[in-house]
Inverse folding.
């Protein structure tokens, strides 16, 4: 089935100018892009943009814990360690596989309605998370959060992560799997080496929290990544990296940093030196982190805050341009988790797309030169009219064609009540 976006604006992180085009989606891919002044290609379904809609790549939320939607609002306004130890971990102990399934689906509702087509999730009961993602028809990069605990827990968690990889890595083209040691403070360095070796043996990436707070920086050697044998795993994704030194002498070819500005601001962790990383040409993606530290799963918010805070703290309005932020929120995340040909609007690329309504007061004056800045500074998730993965609508004008919204919300409410009582 082919869908035609007739007379819409397109922009992505690689275009200096937006273009006004007809865009044809067929067999899950962007089949054709031609000027809106030419005759449109034929299609089964037509979305008529009349020059008042934009199509942008779907957002990739490069670091989150989806089921933590169930823990939103617990232990607000506390430092990271106090928040984790006193408020989050005791409640997480009460999560059942079913609760995680419904919590993940409720996160998926939220993400689809805000234009996210793919998310990188670190949690547990990842079988149920995979089931939730596949039932929605969404895309995700999954890793099992590996943490120390009773004897044998690290080993069992790694084994579970490897099982998840066997079952789901590459599944339906929608899922990839990474190994997910939670953080250096929850996984001893000796076991980090075991995980690094398993990543190399199984050709998997590694995704973990790194240098989120100043305290962590003070407790780890500067050459930690090298010491933990992590520098030569197939791909390394470092969430937060607030305190990673941009002068560090390592090769970043296979490393992506994930900037989570809202979570870092809310937990008072600090602000990563993003501009130094971009000057060094290091790949940086954007993530929300979990809904209990953000508290949204809204990539528009991450884009706007990213574009603003670095200008403010550096007293420099020309750094971190909107176009770079758009690229970080889309293409960079897809690339980090092994999804190729996703995150740009190009013929042959995968149709993971967001339809944005420009027929609104906040877009008056939008044109080819300024669409990216309008989206980042004046836009919000309230402008999302539709979200498509693999050429299929998963969200359109408030409806979720693949999901039962009422049931998901009811089940998530039940789960929330059960874990907090
Ligand atoms: Ni996190």
């Amino acid at each position: 089935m082919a869908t035609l976006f007739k007379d819409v604006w397109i922009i992505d992180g690689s275009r200096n100018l937006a273009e006004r085009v007809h865009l044809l989606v067929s067999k899950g891919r962007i089949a054709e892009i031609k000027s809106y002044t030419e005759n449109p290609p034929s299609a089964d379904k037509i979305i008529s943009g009349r020059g008042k809609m934009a199509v942008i790549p779907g957002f990739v939320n490069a670091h989150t814990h989806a089921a933590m939607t169930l823990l939103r609002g617990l232990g607000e306004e506390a430092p990271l360690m106090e928040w984790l130890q006193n408020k989050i971990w005791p409640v997480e102990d009460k999560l059942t596989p079913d609760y995680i399934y419904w919590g993940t689906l409720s996160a998926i509702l939220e993400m689809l309605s805000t234009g996210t087509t793919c998310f990188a999730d670190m949690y547990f009961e990842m079988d149920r998370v995979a089931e939730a993602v596949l039932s929605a028809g969404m895309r995700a990069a999954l890793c099992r959060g590996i943490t120390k605990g009773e004897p044998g827990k690290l080993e069992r968690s790694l084994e579970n992560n490897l099982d998840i990889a066997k079952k789901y890595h590459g599944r339906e083209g929608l899922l990839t799997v990474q190994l997910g040691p939670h953080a250096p403070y929850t996984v001893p360095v000796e076991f980090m080496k075991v995980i690094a070796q398993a990543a190399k043996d199984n050709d998997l990436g590694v995704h973990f929290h790194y240098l989120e707070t100043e305290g962590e920086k003070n407790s780890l050697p500067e050459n930690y990544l090298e010491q933990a044998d992590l520098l030569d795993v197939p791909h390394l994704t470092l969430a937060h990296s607030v305190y990673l030194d941009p002068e560090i002498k390592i090769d970043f070819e296979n490393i992506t940093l994930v900037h989570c500005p809202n979570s870092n601001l809310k937990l008072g962790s600090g602000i990563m030196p993003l501009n130094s990383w971009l000057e060094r040409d290091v790949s940086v993606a954007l993530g929300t982190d979990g809904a209990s530290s953000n508290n949204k799963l809204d990539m528009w918010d991450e884009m706007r805050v990213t574009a603003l805070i670095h200008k403010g703290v550096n007293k420099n309005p020309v750094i971190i341009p909107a176009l770079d932020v758009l690229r970080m929120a889309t293409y960079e995340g897809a690339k980090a988790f092994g999804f190729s040909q996703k995150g740009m609007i190009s013929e042959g690329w995968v149709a993971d797309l967001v339809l944005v309504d420009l027929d609104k007061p906040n877009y008056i004056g939008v044109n080819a030169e300024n669409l990216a800045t309008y989206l980042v500074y004046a836009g919000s998730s309230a402008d999302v009219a539709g979200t498509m993965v693999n050429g299929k609508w998963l969200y359109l004008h408030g409806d979720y064609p693949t999901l039962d919204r009422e049931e998901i919300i009811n089940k998530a409410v039940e789960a929330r009540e059960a874990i907090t009582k």
Remarks:
- Residues 246 and 280 are 8 Å apart (CA to CA).
- The chain is about 35% helix and 25% strand.
- The pocket of nickel (II) ion is lined by residues 63, 65, 209, 239, 289-290 (CB under 6 Å).
- The chain has a mean pLDDT of 97.
